[in-house]
């Protein structure tokens, strides 16, 4: 990543927007509990009040991080189609002949197997490459390679 605003893919945007909505809901609940205590009682009450205040600070920081990232993504515009970057959808062919279409993202949803993060070995290896390039990356089983087939919405058509 260059330090410039990076684009974000549709799936990653939806995940961040959902997380932002959830965090705002949680923040409203936590903030409501702070206002429910007109006076702080014993040390246990004070400790609980401090814990909720810390939780509120944590939520505020994460809300600001996500809001900033979504704003930067709007500034960056769409994901590149000439070379792999954050937000790109890329189809790769592995040495065993299997082909997968993946999205390079900053963050991955736990259950989404089509996302690779830009700082993962494969995601990092793909960044900056173009169709036809072979990328090399590390795996727990040792070095591996993949060929960039296409950048865009899905696999390239099979050639005859």
From TrEMBL:
InterPro entries xref list: GreA/GreB_C_sf, Tscrpt_elong_fac_GreA/B_C, Tscrpt_elong_fac_GreA/B_fam
Transport in keyword set: no
Chain segments carrying region Disordered: 31-53
UniProt keyword Protein biosynthesis present: yes
Domain of life (superkingdom): Bacteria
Pfam family, one: GreA_GreB
Domain Transcription elongation factor GreA/GreB C-terminal: 80-151
Keyword line: Elongation factor, Protein biosynthesis
This protein's name: GreA/GreB family elongation factor
Species assigned in the record: Streptomyces rameus
């Amino acid at each position: 990543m260059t330090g410039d605003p990076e684009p974000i893919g549709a799936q990653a945007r939806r995940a961040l927007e959902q997380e932002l909505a959830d965090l705002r809901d949680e923040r409203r609940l936590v903030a409501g509990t702070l206002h429910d205590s007109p006076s702080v009682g014993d040390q246990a009450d004070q400790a609980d009040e401090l814990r909720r205040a810390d939780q509120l600070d944590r939520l505020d920081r994460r809300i600001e991080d996500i809001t900033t990232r979504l704003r930067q993504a709007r500034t960056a515009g769409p994901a590149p189609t000439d070379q792999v970057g954050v937000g790109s959808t890329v189809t790769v062919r592995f040495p065993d002949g299997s082909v997968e279409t993946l999205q390079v993202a900053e963050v991955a949803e736990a259950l989404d197997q089509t996302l690779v993060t830009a700082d993962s070995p494969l995601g990092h290896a793909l960044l900056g490459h173009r169709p036809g390039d072979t990328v090399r990356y590390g795996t727990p089983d040792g070095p591996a390679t993949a060929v960039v087939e296409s950048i865009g919405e899905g696999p390239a058509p099979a050639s005859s």
